[in-house]
Amino acid sequence: MEKVKKTAKIFLVVSIVLMLLCGIVVHSVQTNGGKVAMKELTIETDSGYTMSAYLLIPENATAENPAPAVVTSHGYLNNKEMADANYVELARRGFVVLSIDQPDHGDSEVTPDFFILAPDGVYQGVLALSRMPFVDNSRIGVTGHSMGSWSVNAAIQADNLNETPLIAAALIHCNDPLYQDNDGNFANPYGKRDVAVISAVYDEFFGTSVSPEGKPLSSPYFMETDTAQAFLNFGKDKAEWEVREDYTEYLEDVDGKQTLRIIYRPPIIHPWSHFSARSESYICDFFSKTLGAPNEIAPTNQVWQWKEAFNFVGVIGLAIFLCAFTTLLVFTPTFAPLRAEEPAQPVAKPDGKGKLWFWLSLVLGAVFGSLVYLTLVNKGNSMPVAQGEAMGLGLWSTACGLFTILSMVVFYFAYGKKHGLDLKERGVKIGGKKLGLSVLLALIVVTVAYGIVFLEDYFFFADFRLWTLAIKAFEAPILRYLPYVLLFMTYYIAISVATNCFNFNGVGGKFNGIICALFAAAPALILPWIQYITYYKTNHMMWFQATMADPNYPMFVLWLFPIVLILFGSTIISRMIYKSTKNPYIAGVINGLIVGIMTITNTCTVFT
Fold this sequence. Notes:
The protein contains 17 helices and 13 strands.
């Protein structure tokens, strides 16, 4: 075991280096090598709630030489860090950027009425920017992805009530533009503001319409809709329309100003658009043209991908840290009883019947998880709770965990017991003292790991993420939602026991752990494959939301994207920890806590 200890020390150093490298590179990219000042603000809004935001101030923005500015917003169930492509690239080009946490998201306050105050965030950001001496009030733009553009449209409507409007340009990103007045007539609510729309061809939520036969039509047909044509025709009566196309700049005189309308149509899905270099080039090009970029940089010249790449380096570093730090702790006197005398080895390669049980249990687990996912997630999401997403995913995790336990019980009495599977030797049966030590060790590991996350945030404004997977710092009030984390425990403990005590055998040789991890992640792969293969082939999704009263199945399928990596990675982590401990419960508790906290800190919280 001394070799194991030495290896763990090496990997601990490697993990710290990777996480430090993440922070340094991310900070350098976000500040453009020190040319942009980055701050985190808590804004007391005019509406009476507090809103968290990142403020990026390029060195060209001064009180003597005010710069154009842009408010950027994330979408539903996300946070201000998700707008990193926008704030990195716009700040490089000399724009002051305010990236907000919408009300009820991220570090902003949970408000009493989501539907009243949730769309208010972007306009509160505009008001905040307008009061900053280094911002040119005549050149303020707004953009937001998905729900963020719901907030952009609300900001336009609020700004229309001002004698002197503050918003000069708006980009609607993966949402529908305004094109009617309050009476339902075609109109131009944007007035003389320059406006662009990024409408993803395979958007799951917006750009919808209905065929003459009453059949729901998805986003691939958006350019044929009244929404698109009325917007591009500046709200004229339908009889005056000319058929207008995407990627074409349309200019018309509105109140004495040449005003721009354009629709971009990247052939991608809704959540990918805020992670797309193509979409980001449209955003940079639009605001550079309409507000005047102080620093002229080609739209395709982008560096935000480096930030994302090293954010993921941080994820890898944290995963290695969990394994190495846990291993080293079992070499301390307090946790020595949890250390295996020798590294855990696979059980003897099973016979033909044993192999059948192995593959059958993996396949049935994947099938069960796939079949019950949409039903259970919809059930939890529709409950009157503060975090519908956490409840839905938690119910699914609990059900999958119980199914895994049932599978192990059936396997043990039908095959394992007769073929010498020793539950005590494999670590399934442990005493109360060891179980208590296991939980304590897991709590220490998770606390220290999140301590590192907070240090990254404090010193570098960095976290550990890839696309919609995010391990981030959080404000203390979120801790009141820790009970949701318990919903994830059953699954992550059960899958750790199954992976290591039952399925750690000779099947697959060195790839046994990868096989187990792939099957654990299978439900998160199967459902999106079905959804999007159907969408790309037929222009219609397998599961769609016909009306707002129907279950939001497209959203639930999207939630699986980060879960692929979570399920795969957590299974590998559990195997690594088991090898030095012969204890499946340590990794199960660690993974359950990490995934549960990730869930409650990356969602929308409603007032209950």
